[in-house]
Design brief:
mainly alpha, Tetracycline Repressor, domain 2, 0% strand
Length: 204
């Protein structure tokens, strides 16, 4: 006989729902404004709560953003685990990059902050984030080496270079430039960036 789960109080449910809304808003604002420009006032105003209420959930902007980034990594891990086992390694990598670009073009928070963001230094000191990043990197690295062994990715390239190249697509400024230009739809931009990433610029 299974032990019944303890009933969550209405107050706890509301607390969790508000926290989820805070994290979702933070993801979007970080995509739109980046860490240095985003404020706790921005988050509170967007969620529709008092700033004091926001601080009941997160003691600082750094804590809030680290929690949001850890949540993003959990979503990435869930996405990677959900890819069919029969899919070719290079196709798994392409699917991941497409997923990252779709998040980027819809102004969701990027998987990795830009190198000049002060958020990066905060994240490098956050163990849950680093643990999640290592787990994701190990999985992607495994697919990279498999794809190289199959001749689908240039085997002369160090796997770490390929890994960072794929990560860079998650914060690729080309996406924003093309969207601002208005010549292509979001779906077309994603496919164009995918082509340059995996097929290069050389004529075929």
């Amino acid at each position: 006989m299974q032990t019944p789960h303890p009933k969550i109080s209405f107050k706890e449910q509301m607390h969790q729902a508000r926290e989820n809304a805070i994290l979702q808003t933070t993801c979007r604002l970080l995509g739109e404004k980046a860490f240095d420009a985003m404020t706790m006032d921005d988050v509170a105003n967007d969620v529709g709560i008092a700033k004091a209420s926001l601080y009941k959930h997160f003691a600082s902007k750094e804590e809030l953003c680290c929690t949001a980034m850890v949540q993003i990594l959990e979503r990435v891990q869930a996405y990677l685990h959900g890819l069919p086992a029969t899919m070719e390694p290079v196709d798994k990598l392409r699917a991941l990059v497409r997923w990252s670009l779709e998040r980027l073009i819809s102004d969701e928070m990027p998987l990795l902050p830009s190198r000049n963001s002060s958020l990066r230094a905060v994240l490098m000191a956050n163990k849950p984030y680093l643990d999640g990043l290592i787990a994701v990197s190990d999985q992607i690295g495994h697919w990279i080496t498999e794809a190289q062994a199959q001749g689908r990715i240039d085997a002369s390239l160090p796997p770490l270079v390929v890994l960072y190249t794929l990560y860079a697509r998650a914060c690729d400024p080309v996406v924003g430039f093309l969207k601002e230009g208005g010549q292509y739809s979001d779906a077309e931009i994603v496919e164009l960036v995918l082509r340059t990433c995996f097929d290069g610029l050389a004529a075929r």
